[in-house]
């Protein structure tokens, strides 16, 4: 398996260094023969190539079997005409990575405020309120007068159907329960279509229990009783917000794994951003990116029918549970180690 590795900005290089060590360790232990191709994105790419991402990088990623993307300073990239392109948007759109799979679970030994739970947010990743990816070219956020902005939200039957299918297929491997999250009381047509398509797909999965919740109420429901949920399917922006909440409820945003998957490509990507407030201080939690790398290996293993990749994915999750229980982790999740030492302990545990 060939994986392109892009460390990104802020805490990206520190957390990606750990992730690379972990990938190399599981490659040795499970005989995966991973081939890692290191390149740059974000500020480093802007400096070297005049753009945060380039067409040649895209071609390289398309030819590879997977991509690991570190967090990037997207808020600082404001002008595409100057090469300041949001790398996350770029890859999600260009590779049609329509399903963003964001698991959140609690960990034995790590106190949390809500009790044990294990759920996955399945977020549509290519349209919705993300105006910057809704049309083929040009801007879909418009200054109508100097005081009026219109931002375009797009919802399509096709995207609703395929994200619903991802959610129901995932639910069949877990607790057979899908919760649809929407705002159909206000966005009647768009979210009405989203619910309709989820319900249509649900009919193909009669074993799966289905319910639905309005997004604002859902914020209260997951805080009150997250153990009631298994797979939560929702549109792009709602999923982005809800999944940061569920990651933090699990113990830390630094624990949120995130896989962006399409039909032919997948990208592991930390759920959090570049965290400039802690960058370069050896305190960032690397587990979000490490868990995302595990998800990428699992995706490849499932797609190609390769049990060793599935075992490697499982080993990464189990080592995370064990590391947290033993306190071999960063301070945000109750440990005393820095980022690099967390990585060394993790690799030792994997190879023990
Ligand atoms: P952030 O996710 O970077 O940080 C939010 C808070 O969580 C901060 O207090 C940070 O210190 C903490 N945090 C984040 N990751 C952590 C980790 N691994 N370990 C410990 N603590 C962690 O959000 P932000 O500060 O709003 O955004 C910073 C930059 O990241 C912005 O430019 C934003 O646009 C960008 N961003 C990028 C992505 C991405 O690349 N996928 C996602 C979100 C935000």
What does this protein look like?
- With 352 residues, the protein is an alpha/beta fold.
- It has 2 domains: 1-95 and 275-352, Isopropylmalate Dehydrogenase (3-Layer(aba) Sandwich), CATH 3.40.718; 113-249, Isopropylmalate Dehydrogenase (3-Layer(aba) Sandwich).
- 42% of the residues lie in helices and 17% in strands.
- The chain has 11 helices and 12 strands.
- It has helices spanning 12-30, 42-49, 55-63, 87-94, 157-172, 190-202, 215-224, 236-249, 287-304, 307-326, 339-351; strands spanning 2-6, 35-38, 66-69, 99-105, 118-124, 141-145, 148-151, 177-182, 209-214, 231-234, 259-261, 266-269.
- The strands form 2 sheets. It has a 10-stranded mixed beta sheet, with helices on both faces. A two-stranded antiparallel ribbon has the order 6-7.
- A hairpin with a 2-residue loop joins strand 6 (141-145) and strand 7 (148-151).
- Helix 5 packs across helix 6 (190-202).
- The protein is globular.
- The mean pLDDT is 96.
- Nicotinamide-adenine-dinucleotide is lined by residues 11, 71-76, 88, 253-254, 269, 272-278, 284-285, 288, 332.
Main attributes of the structure:
Isopropylmalate Dehydrogenase; binds nicotinamide-adenine-dinucleotide; 11 helices; single chain; 17% strand; 352 residues; ten-stranded mixed sheet; 2 domains; alpha/beta; two-stranded antiparallel ribbon
